[in-house]
Design brief:
- By secondary structure, this protein is of the alpha/beta class.
- It has a domain of 223 residues: P-loop containing nucleotide triphosphate hydrolases (Rossmann fold).
- It is built from twelve helices and 13 strands.
- A nine-stranded mixed sheet has the order 6-5-7-8-4-9-10-12-13.
- A hairpin with an 8-residue loop joins strand 9 and strand 10.
- Helix 9 packs parallel to helix 11.
- The longest helix has 21 residues.
- The radius of gyration is 33 Å and the shape is globular.
- The protein starts with 6 loop residues before the first helix and ends in a 7-residue tail after the last strand.
- This is KaiC domain-containing protein.
- InterPro entries: Circ_KaiC_arc, KaiC-like_dom, KaiC_dom, P-loop_NTPase.
- GO terms for molecular function: ATP binding.
């Protein structure tokens, strides 16, 4: 068995070691707890078995030793609060001392410079950087001008992105532009198409000024054309092999155009949902940021044809036609329906399909 294959045995061995350590720790709990509760400021003090020694324990916030003569005579004092105050008074200071300062126990200063009222001192405190907290999740840009500005920080890496739109709204261009951003940065990408031929994809990219043919020659781009009939007959094999192939290629981004043809292969809704779920799950297992395009529903432009992919995706972008009441001008508009783990604009913004791809007018309104 190789070093990579014995991880389970190591994990089990670690669990056994943890169990033994737990039993040892539990057997010493009573002794440790008693010593901790009866410790005072003097390292040379000894345990006194006389019950009278506990009469005044913790009654004075400034007397951690529990001297009976200094016990409070007031009635109604809470032993819990007094014990807490005593423990708090003598807790180690982060600066290296006890109570009010390094190396000394100052009953007036409390812990770390806290006074009698518990007010914090005016010393420097560590500030919480909200930006650092949000940056824990690695994010990427789509490569679409204006739309990236609507996403605060970018889309989380390894997300499943869905682009929903009717015919002519630029779904394929969206996917190519998304892939080109990674390729232009020296990374790798895979484009899986169920609709267009490989040559057609090269031509479309070339029209936008994207050197997909050159990227393919450099072995940084793989365009896979799958016939829908062939895919229907070999879906299980494709679903199983695709993640391994993508990992072997070292792809950073993957585009599937479109998932609607996959959905159309199944007549029964339960089969459709199951297969689409399994397929998108296999894409996530590939460990790359994946974008799938989907036809919009004929009844609802904000929903995919079968209303499945938007619930499985981590991010959903809706492309649609917007027509005024007078029908004088038809515009294209984009809306971010959701992005998990990322803040984004809720506005609907106009965009155009230009010779350089999609361009979103972040500062403009629809009409």
């Amino acid at each position: 068995m190789s070093g990579d294959d014995d991880w389970f045995e190591r994990a089990v061995g670690a669990d056994d070691a943890d169990d033994e350590a737990t039993e040892t720790a539990e057997s010493e709990t009573d002794t440790d707890d008693s010593d901790a509760e009866l410790s005072d400021d003097s390292a040379e003090s000894e345990f006194d078995p006389d019950p009278d020694a506990f009469d005044g324990f913790g009654s004075d916030a400034g007397n951690a030793g529990g001297d009976p003569e200094s016990a409070s005579d007031e009635e109604g004092d809470s032993p819990f609060e007094e014990d807490f105050a005593s423990a708090f008074q003598n807790a180690p200071d982060p600066e290296g001392g006890f109570g009010g300062g390094p190396g000394e126990a100052d009953p007036e200063a409390g812990f770390g410079g806290l006074g009698e009222m518990g007010a914090p001192d005016s010393g420097p405190t560590e500030s919480f950087d909200e930006g650092e907290f949000e940056s824990a999740i690695e994010r990427i840009h789509l490569g679409i001008e204006g739309l990236d500005d609507m996403i605060l920080g970018g889309v989380p890496k390894r997300s499943l992105i869905s682009v929903i739109g009717s015919a002519g709204t630029g779904k394929t261009t969206f996917g190519l532009q998304f892939l080109n951003r990674a390729l232009a940065d020296g990374k790798r990408g895979v484009y899986v198409t169920l609709e267009e031929s490989t040559d057609r994809i090269y031509d479309t990219a070339e029209e936008k000024g994207w050197s997909f043919a050159e990227y393919a020659e450099e072995e940084r781009l793989a365009i896979v054309h799958l016939d829908p009939v062939e895919m229907a007959n070999s879906l299980a094999s494709i679903r199983s092999d695709l993640p391994d192939l993508v990992k072997a290629f070292g792809a950073d981004r993957l585009v599937l155009d479109s998932v609607s043809l996959l959905e159309m292969m199944y007549d029964h809704p339960s089969d459709r949902r199951s297969e689409v779920y399994q397929f998108t799950r296999s894409l996530k297992e590939a460990g790359v940021t994946t974008l799938v395009t989907s036809e919009a529903s004929g009844e609802n432009p904000y929903s995919s044809r079968y209303g499945i992919i938007e619930y499985l995706a981590d991010a959903v972008f809706v492309l649609q036609y917007v027509r005024p009441s007078d029908f004088q001008e038809t515009r294209l508009a984009v809306e971010i329906q959701k992005i998990r783990d990322a803040n984004h604009s809720r506005e609907t913004k106009p965009y155009e399909i230009t010779n350089e791809g999609l361009s979103v007018y972040r500062q403009a309104n629809i009409f």
